Amino acid sequence: MTKRTIGLVQMRTGVDPARNLDDAEALIREAAGEGASLVMTPETTHLMQRDGDTLFDVVRTPEADPAIPRFSALARELEIDLLAGSLALAGPDGRAVNRSHLFGPDGSLKAVYDKIHMFDVKIGPDETWSESTNYKPGDRAVLADVGGDVLGLTICYDLRFAYLYRRLAQAGATMLAVPSAFTRPTGRAHWEVLLRARAIETGSFILAPAQGGAHEDGRKTWGRSMVVGPWGEIVAALDHDEPGVLLAEIDADAATKARERIPALAGDRDFAGPDPLKR
């Protein structure tokens, strides 16, 4: 397939998974009703909980979590590819995993991806995050076929690590998913710039559904869900952090053309150094 309509779901996820799933389903149905054949939700779609103790009281294993069969059934009913941008699930080592699930139009689970890069940062004196305390990082990049096009899976903070996107594009991805929950300070400063940079560097479509607004657990996210084209152009974007749906028509041939014009993905060279400076 070349041309397709993408639907990005923007949410304001809270602390009640059941209510969050109802909110997500309503927006997914809205996107599919507007003609989207590929619909994506943001990071931590069904639970936004920064308190570790409370998080582990709520998260379930993949086998027990109701979100997975519910999204599977929804994809099958609507006959769409559906990316649950990420779900917080109980992992095997006492920590949770931050995991994307891609369901096909028949409801099958086509791919899963665990977020590789953990959001361990100190944004300012009053805002520190240590995602690796509660979440186990993934260790494998993932591609999936979506109606004949190749989708590379990433999550939020992965966006700052260009080598992941390059590897996915070199392996065949023409679309790169970035379901996110960017903080307001980093979103205001870096969200659009980083999305456009990853698109330009890889000659790919960047599909970025986001969380937005003030959440029940106390965090505040940036919103501004966005689709960026392979030449770095903004194809479609929301200009707010309210829940809603962003629709965009994309043509996968545009990625091929961008890569023909600037074949940077084929230009890797080995090089030495640099040697550390002595101070």
Automatic annotation (TrEMBL):
Entry-linked PROSITE patterns: CN_HYDROLASE
One Pfam family it belongs to: CN_hydrolase
CDD domains: nit
Amino-acid biosynthesis among keywords: no
Ranges of residues in domain CN hydrolase: 4-252
InterPro entries given in the database record: C-N_Hydrolase, C-N_Hydrolase_sf, Nit1/2_C-N_Hydrolase
Keywords of this entry: Hydrolase
Entry's Gene Ontology molecular function annotations: hydrolase activity, acting on carbon-nitrogen (but not peptide) bonds, in linear amides
Keyword Membrane: no
Protein name as annotated: Amidohydrolase
Protein source organism: Marinicauda salina
